[in-house]
Amino acid sequence: GWRRRRLGVLPSDVASLLLWAVRTGTAPEPAKMQSLLVLLQPHLRVLRRAHLLRLLLALAEGGVRPEAGFMRHMVECMEPKLPLLGAENLTQLLLALRGLGYVPPQDWILAYIQASRAQLHYYAPAHVTATLEVFSSWQLRPPRPYLRALLALADGLMTKYSHKGLASLLHCLGSLGVRPQRRWLVQALSRLAEAAEAAAGGGGQGQGGSRLEGIQEVQAEAGALHSHSHSQSHSHSQSRRSSQRQQRRAVAAWSLVVALCSLRGVVELEGAGEREREGEWQGGASWQGGREEQRGGVRVPQVPQGPQPSAPPLPEQHAVGAADWSDAALHTAAAASSSQAAAPSTTPSPAAPPPLLPRPSSLASSSSCPPAPRPVLLPYALWSPVKRLSEVLVARGLLGELSGRQLDRLIHALDRLNFYPGREFLAAHAAATAAVGAQLLPERKAAVAGCYGRLAALVPAMAEEARRQALARQARQAVMLAEGAGDAWEK
């Protein structure tokens, strides 16, 4: 009896019981929870790491918001135990702190980063993404060495990422102001396209499901007494599978929108005069960090302004390469852009917004004003993967899974990227926008129509950039051939 009474009042038992009560829906009222925290606070230092973590999880999952003094004492007690936590517990700890709305002091964060780096080889893709999501929600950019290690790990785990995980990862990097290497971005976007295509198409699961349905039908026909129950079960199962498939398609479409919205920081950084450093660290991001980052400190990043939404399949019949951006293809699109850009608007729009591109020389006055600045296009290395993403939206019919607000964000993201996705995409986007036109206000419809016009006007600039890139490739090849011929002559 004495032992049972003693175990019943141990602080560790209280922490474990609180988590059990929260997860079973039998937690006490918030006022009683707060009184329990007052009783527990003097005993926090004697709790083991597992019990401290359980207490934090119980508070976060139960929606309890302790006082700042309690949280400060809690993280102080947890700090010396951080090196003893594994990858899963470290991630749970960060997520619990975010759920409680508490940002630890800088010294604690640095101690956490040190413990996390020692466990990185045990991290899965979900751990990497969750860690960056928490720092993004805190608007705190981790030190450069830790980010380097995280992104190098993400590079090695790229094939294990889902489309949703990659979209979240890109969104976190954009909100933290991290600029990955072009190679890293191309690889991430390509993997994103493949994963979203599999999710939108259903892969082999659909075929397996149809075979299972056939077996169930045969079994149902074999027994007359159970035929009615089997048909009802089959109908419910079919409806559930259809709902799950539609859910997967909607998530895949939204992941694509998130990825495209996250890329706009690349254009903004280059437009501000930033240039990619030579010899960037492998698998990571190039930083323009100050002394504080080099000391290993944590600072508030420059978060891009505007909405930050939270990934797309690759159609097999549309391979994107240099030929897609040839002069003939771009000028063909330019010839039809005037009629195509006007078609999408379902309501009469007010005066068109000012153009983002210089007018053609035949229309601009030759002596009145200086030429408009050249548009900052999406970097050429990203044209192919971004084109793949836009083609997947069209080929898999994912635009129909988006709401009016999501379609608005998508076309504005492409507009900010200064990337023309092609006539087929604009036509499909216009049809999807018309189908959900009731969800958009007239001014938003007018803004979407303005995006169509500005995107179509990008064709000449993109054709010129494609020619410049082709000439640069030819020049590099000529130099390589000349060097090879010289070496052969010397031999």
**Secondary structure tally, helices:** 21
What portion of residues is helical? 55-70%
Please give the alpha-carbon distance between the first and last residues.
95 Å
Strand content: under 5%
**Globular, elongated, flat, extended or rod-shaped: what is the shape?**
globular
Write the layout of secondary structure elements.
Elements: H1 2-8, H2 11-23, H3 30-40, H4 49-62, H5 68-78, H6 87-99, H7 106-118, H8 125-138, H9 144-156, H10 163-176, E1 179-180, H11 182-201, H12 205-222, H13 227-262, H14 264-271, E2 285-286, H15 291-294, H16 327-342, H17 383-395, H18 404-417, H19 423-435, H20 442-456, H21 459-490
Helix pairs in contact: 2-4, 4-6, 6-8, 8-10, 10-11, 10-13, 11-13, 11-17, 12-13, 13-18, 14-18, 16-20, 16-21, 17-19, 18-20
Biased composition (Basic residues): 227-246
Biased composition (Pro residues): 304-315
Signal peptide: 1-27
Give a quick summary of the entry.
Helix content is 64%, strand content 1%. The protein has 21 helices and 2 strands. Keywords: Signal.
Task: Give an account of the 3D structure.
Residues 304-315 have a biased composition (Pro residues). Residues 1-27 form the signal peptide. Keywords: Signal. Residues 227-246 have a biased composition (Basic residues). With 491 residues, the chain is mostly helical. It has a domain at 1-122. Helix content is 64%, strand content 1%. It has 21 helices and two strands. Strands 1-2 form a two-stranded antiparallel sheet. The longest helix is centred in the middle third of the chain and has 36 residues, at 227-262.
